[in-house]
Design brief:
Layout: H1 9-20, H2 25-32, H3 36-45, E1 47-48, E2 53-54, H4 56-69, H5 80-92, H6 97-108, H7 115-123, H8 173-176, E3 184-190, E4 197-203, E5 209-214
Antiparallel strand pairs: 1-2, 3-4, 4-5
Helix pairs in contact: 1-2, 1-4, 2-3, 6-7
């Protein structure tokens, strides 16, 4: 016996007959060679509210209605107008799948296609021209990273960081001993990410402070 099977109209009529004969759920399940839980769920799910009794006709009708709604939905990229719009944005405008998905959102008011679906179409070669072969010689080359991982495991993020050409140990002795004016230390006091921050400049000798509020902390790219 399989772990899962659909009940037929004959099965449902036998359930009704068993209930009419005051048989237990286990007895009905034994006669149909089904699990008692299957019979129990079937009866609870398809009782007519007005009479409070199990109805095989209602159960069969509900089953057919649910079966019509199930099944895989048509592939979104088979929509010609949607496909052509995505193809134009990807190949001609060099937009990423994430940008395309988010751009279509305000036009329709809902997410009509996920960026993952677009990636799948790209890797499947749906946007390739007939003269191009599949793989990295096709439209995958239009991706900003050509379908390759962005970074390897040893990659160190450098964006938003100011490159330090000289270490603190190389600064002049006059700055270390605070014997000379004009050696400034800069710092930022940041609040919430993306919000305003405080920029400070302090002269090491005089401890003179210059501070100003910046509207936004911008990272260098």
């Amino acid at each position: 016996m399989s772990h899962y099977q659909h009940l037929t109209i004959n099965d449902r009529e036998m359930i009704l007959e068993g209930l009419a004969q005051s048989k237990t759920i286990r007895e009905i399940a034994r006669n149909l060679k089904l699990a008692p839980s299957t019979i129990s769920r079937e009866i609870k799910r398809h009782k007519r509210r007005n009479i409070g009794r199990y109805s095989p006709d209602k159960a069969q009708s509900d089953y057919k209605f649910s079966k019509r709604k199930c099944g895989r939905k048509p592939r979104l990229l088979e929509d010609t107008s949607l496909f052509q719009k995505i193809k134009h944005l990807f190949l001609d405008c060099q937009w990423s799948p994430e940008e395309i998905s988010q751009r279509l959102l305000p036009e329709t008011g809902e997410t009509i296609i996920n960026f993952i679906t677009i990636y799948r179409g790209i890797y499947a070669g749906l946007f390739d021209k007939p003269s191009l072969s599949q793989g990295n010689r096709g439209d995958i080359r239009k991706l900003r990273h050509r379908g390759k991982p962005r970074h390897n495991k040893d990659y160190i993020e450098k964006r938003g960081k100011i490159p330090i050409t000289n270490t603190i140990y190389e600064r002049p002795e006059t700055a270390n001993k605070r014997t000379e004016f004009g050696h400034w230390e800069a710092d930022t006091v940041a609040g919430k990410i993306g919000k305003s921050c405080l920029v400070t400049l302090v002269d090491r000798k005089s401890r003179f402070l210059i501070a100003s509020k910046a509207t936004k902390k911008v990272q260098n790219r």
